Amino acid sequence: MKEWTELVKDIKHKSLKFFGIGSAPILADLLCSNIIHYTLGWSLTLSGMIGFLAGTVTAYFLYLFITFAERHLDFTWKSLYRFLKSSVLAAFIRIIALSTLEWITSLYGFVILLLSIALSGLTRYILAHFYVFKKIDQESEMIRDTLAR
């Protein structure tokens, strides 16, 4: 029974971390995109891409220092480079989603931005979890500790 309660606590903790902290880049993205689109009158695609950049910067630092903090990773240029590469894929997905939805649907701009942000945000999180901030295995950790002595 104890294992079950620990599992529920772990799922609850990870869910709060994902939805709480993980929503900050999406909110930064959505806020920036909407402000640019509705106040400056720029196109959905351009304002969506500028919002994407704001969300990308926010996401990298939140993922590094909060979401994946238990992995005890430090800032490295390699991880930043990996994150930027994964963000290029997410940006490509964002552009396709924005352009396609704007072209084939008559949805409001807010709905189109929200759908494209959801697709690119999910892509970015999955790549961050499994590619950018992947866990260091014990052998690498032992080698690093040995070299540090």
Properties at a glance:
149 residues; mainly alpha; 6 helices; 84% helix; 0% strand
Any overview of this molecule?
The protein has 149 residues and is mostly helical. The protein has one domain. The protein is 84% helix and 0% strand. The protein has 6 helices and no strands. It has helices at 2-21, 23-40, 44-67, 77-104, 109-132, 138-148. Helix 2 runs antiparallel to helix 3 and helix 4 runs antiparallel to helix 5 (109-132). The protein is globular. The mean pLDDT is 79.
Order of helices and strands: HHHHHH
Helix content estimate = over 70%
Largest sheet: none
End-to-end distance = 43 Å
What amount of the residues lies in strands? under 5%
Write the layout of secondary structure elements.
Blueprint: H1 2-21, H2 23-40, H3 44-67, H4 77-104, H5 109-132, H6 138-148
Helix pairs in contact: 2-3, 2-5, 3-4, 3-5, 4-5
Q: What is the gist of this entry?
A:
The protein is mainly α.
